[in-house]
Design a protein that fits this description.
Radius of gyration: 21 Å
Protein name: Release factor glutamine methyltransferase
Strand order of the largest sheet: 7-6-5-8-9-11-10
GO biological process, one term: methylation
Order of helices and strands: EHHHEHHEEHEHEHEEHHEHEE
Shape: globular
Number of helices: 11
Keywords: Methyltransferase, S-adenosyl-L-methionine, Transferase
EC number: 2.1.1.297
Distance between the termini: 69 Å
Function: Methylates the class 1 translation termination release factors RF1/PrfA and RF2/PrfB on the glutamine residue of the universally conserved GGQ motif.
CATH topology of the largest domain: Rossmann fold
CATH superfamily of the largest domain: Vaccinia Virus protein VP39
């Protein structure tokens, strides 16, 4: 092995965990496991069963450089360059929001609607506004083999990432992208519209954890002065791009249920369902248009 002998897998894991604990990270053991497992391509189980395996000096060096990046607040999944979402491995890029487990609730919530529409009409067509990595749309397509989807985003780089993720997960034939703001590049109707739009008030961005404000793209976070700009834009035009009986689902901030609901009601929609996240905060709203 070039550059001399590195540590064992369990030795490296221990080293990372200790450094993370000294730096007061919230959950050093879990973060160390994700980082070392990701860098060495080992599952949580393999980290244990192959604990006495030697790590190459090169891999150990990469891991130590990654420790420094994490201690500089870069999130573990950004360092690894990918994250799993709804069982799909997704590549991240600087232009994309890192998909979070809370957003899987939007997929969970919309799936029954997609399946019901599928049973009624066959091919369900889905629009994911501000698609980023493609996470929401690709998860729905993966779970609904008849569905097709469009991911729209203002960032060409994000859309390139989303197309790569579709390819990687065998979904490229049913997924395409549209570059533009909100409905600007959209010229067709959909049965389901979903979005996890930027919803943080501009003035709050500077107070966010460095992991978020320094590494997630600002355009994916900043919802304008009151955090509601995206919902205004979506509510204003969504009905024109929805088939009759179509459904619309959005992720929201913890304190936005009432304001977002009234914005959509003002545009002729009615609330069908509101779902909370694992922390019992309002997280997903589902709307239907009054025909």
């Amino acid at each position: 092995m070039s550059g001399g002998q590195g540590p064992t897998v369990s030795g490296l894991l221990q080293e990372v965990r200790v450094r993370f604990a000294e730096a007061d990270l919230d959950d050093p053991a879990t973060e160390a496991r994700i980082l070392v497992g990701g860098l060495l391509h080992l599952s949580s189980t393999e980290l244990v069963t192959r604990g006495s395996d030697a790590v190459s000096a090169g891999d150990a060096e990469t891991a130590r450089a990654a420790i420094d990046r994490r201690l500089n607040h870069e999130p573990v999944y950004r360092i690894l360059g990918e994250r799993e979402f709804y069982g799909l491995p997704l590549r991240l890029s600087p232009a994309t929001l890192e998909p979070r487990p809370d957003t899987e609730i939007l997929v969970d919530t919309m799936l029954p609607y997609v399946r019901r529409l599928e049973s009624q009409i066959g091919n369900v067509h889905i629009l994911d506004i501000g698609t980023g990595t493609g996470a929401i749309c690709l998860a729905l397509l993966h779970e609904s083999p008849q569905a097709t989807g469009v991911g729209s985003d203002i960032s060409g780089e994000a859309l390139e990432t989303a197309r790569g993720n579709a390819e990687r997960n065998g979904l490229a034939a049913r997924f395409r992208t549209a570059e533009g703001s909100w409905f600007e590049a959209i010229h067709e109707r959909f049965h389901v519209i979903v979005s996890n739009p930027p919803y943080i008030a501009s003035s709050v961005i500077s107070t966010l954890a460095p992991e978020v404000k320094d590494f997630d793209p600002p355009a994916a976070l900043d919802g304008g002065v009151d955090g509601l700009d995206a919902y205004r834009a979506i509510a204003k035009d969504a009905a024109r791009f929805l088939h009759p009986h179509g459904m619309l689902g959005v992720e929201i901030g913890y304190d936005q249920r009432e304001t977002v609901t009234s914005l959509f009601e003002g545009a002729g929609f009615f609330l069908v369902e509101a779902v909370r996240d694992y922390g019992q905060n309002d997280r997903v709203l589902v709307f239907k248009f009054h025909q």
